[in-house]
Amino acid sequence: MVNINKNKKKIILIIGILIGVLSLIYLYSLHFLFGYNLSPTNIMYAFSPWNSEHVNILGPLLSDPADSILPQLYDLYHNGHFGLWDNTISLGQITDLWLCVYPLNWLYFLPFEHAVIIKSILEFLIALFSMYLFIFSLGIEKRASIIGAVIYTFSAVMVVWHFWPHSDVAAFAPLLFYFMRRMILEDKYLCIVGLGYIEGIMLLAGMPTYVAYFDYLLGFYFLYLVFKNDKTNWRKALKHSLMFMLSIGIGILISSPYLLGVVESTISTGYSASRSNQSAAVLDIKYLLTMIFPFAKQEEVHFNECTMFVGILPILLFPTFFLGIKRKQNKDYLYWFISFVVLILLLFTHILDFVYMRMPAINTSLKIRIIVLICFVLPIISSICLEDIILNYKYYKKYWYILLPIYVIVLCGYFFLRRIYPDYVLLKKTDFVVLFSLLLLFVSFIKKNKLCIFGLLLLAIFNGTSVAKQYFPYVSKDGEIVPEPTDSIEFLQKEASNSTVLVLGDSWTFFPNTNGYYGLHLLSGHSLGLTSPDYTLYFQGICAESYQTPTRVQFTSIDNYNLLKYLGVQYIAVNRDYIQNTGQDLSNSSNTMLVYSGDDGIDVYQLLDSSNRFEYATDVYVHSNKNEMLKSMENTYTPNGIHLLESSSDYFIDNDSNQKKDIAQQDRNKISIIDESRDYISLETTNQQTEYLVFNEYYDENWKVYVNGKEEELLQCNYLTRAVLLHEGENFVEFKYENDTIYLLLVISGCTIIITSTSSILILVRKKKGKK
């Protein structure tokens, strides 16, 4: 009998592995079988200058991964440019530390094309495993747990946000609930550490708002479990509360170096306050259709934000949500059902806005993003209901005469709705899944049949993988994931390696941050740091329409050349077709000169009389406030000029103007870069008089400057940039980024990991010895 059971388990394992492998092959069939590369950067080939390479692309065009995530990952792991300061985004900003410390990002040490698909597969597997583990821990039998895990793995949050940090957070989220539940029911210290580590990993995944959504749901679940299990024992309730707070504290400490930057950016820039009106956003009821037809065209709301896809099976199980509730309650069914109702009310109505608007960490985010929690809750409810059908089919058999007309109405409703979308891309596959799922489900109501449940599992996999497969972005094999540099990019790599380039074109010409792939410095960018009021006012002075979104800067015109010249911009890369269509002719401008006309549709102009990245300045213009400074700079550009605030009066110089200009012009090239990394740059300068060395990167108070080994005052100049006063003679100048707070938090984070992991190992060793 034992051998028979072992053989049966082996057969089940082999079948499971075979289904898993076949599912992956089907999911990534374009990659494995049909000569395409999975590529979230496929959008680059759709726009100038890379569209000149005529590479075939498939799937959606994912802008955010291509211009605000992958370029930084590429520069970090492929080019090896690690540091706390990132000078690849506009004039520079603090590095998004999650890119360095989130464990799945370490896969990008591998060749880029391999890292992309391996991370994609791992993300799905983590979501599958973690959701199965949690559902199974509720006491739900294996088959129902696996189906629930499959539903979650290919739900909207895991598919449409797949190459964003959102799906990374969602993949680990079920483990939060798994460890918290075990912590309360089993009083295990290791569960405190496990919960803390998962909280930390989720925060480090780079989307803390999504973590907050799950944390609120987790917090309410914690209160529910404490009330359910500890209501007669206040000491135990207090103990569990302290354990819960400790675990969340561990997660916050582990992720604290990253969280500090997030908090500083959102508060200091005013970005958080600017988004407070989004907490009242709701969806129209018609978006419920995206649960069945995720690719149905929706005009009003972005596809990622409104898609509610969870597969066909949860919808077909919906009538059973209201049956056997008392029997299901030992699986915490009531909590999950009430959560689902509350989430639906939040998503489609304003009834609970007064509550949501007062919930920190999420009340500045689009309220409709709570779809992530609906995608989380529905698979759990579906698993509970499916298990109830499997174990109590006789109960459902008694109500077949009620369920049959309900499902006939459901089927008729489906065929009515499908007429709305006759050209829906997955219509035939959806028809197949609906019809056979209904058939197998109804057979399960009246007869105990393992094959029916197995069939429902296969249909859930097919349904989910079909949607995911349709949404994946691809490029043909002749196109690299990171496009090869076109001829104009090669020109800029050669001529503008140590200066800033302004791209002039439509919203997608050489779009922001993609310069990170090519070692160029573009003035445009896409980052939370660009919401700073200083950046905003200055860039809108250059181009009134420069902010495409609150975090995305792209220049579609040049309204003021003077402001450009102060920033060390020496080249302007122009989309030739865009300029012709908009009538902006730089060839007739006295400020520019055409120096290269590329085969890729890009013309490169040199900005005449502009400053360099490092520039000597001797003419001092003093202002009482920054608004006055910006106005003066808009009106006039003075070569070798520097604008300072009155607060820098201790560092003013007053030499003869003619002498200053002559000497500064002679010494203009007498600046040698000795060493440069993200957080450090050293130079040798020759100065024939006292003058300023202007460094045309963004001023941040954590930058320090040392001249001949002695720390000097770093001045904020020209509204955005930094400078140091140098005296006559040869000088060795070092700029160092020294953020002591982040260094301290990195130490605290490391110590937290060491202490908790060491104590966990000691507990495990002691338990092992105790068993002996």
Question: What key attributes describe this structure?
Answer:
772 residues; globular; five-stranded antiparallel beta sheet; 24 strands; 29 helices; alpha+beta; 14% strand; five-stranded mixed beta sheet
Description:
The structure is a single chain. With 772 residues, the protein is of the alpha+beta class. 51% of the residues lie in helices and 14% in strands. The protein has 29 helices and 24 strands. The strands form 7 sheets. A 5-stranded mixed beta sheet has the order 7-6-11-13-12. A 5-stranded antiparallel beta sheet has the order 17-18-24-20-21, with no helix packed on it. Strand 20 and strand 21 (710-712) form a beta hairpin. Helix 1 runs parallel beside helix 22, helix 8 (165-186) runs parallel beside helix 10 and helix 9 (189-204) packs antiparallel against helix 29 (740-771). The longest helix has 35 residues, at 234-268. The radius of gyration is 30 Å and the shape is globular. The model is unreliable at 663-669 (pLDDT under 50).
Placed side by side, the strands forming the largest sheet appear as 7-6-11-13-12
Low-pLDDT runs: 663-669
| Helix percent band | 40-55%
Number of strands: 24
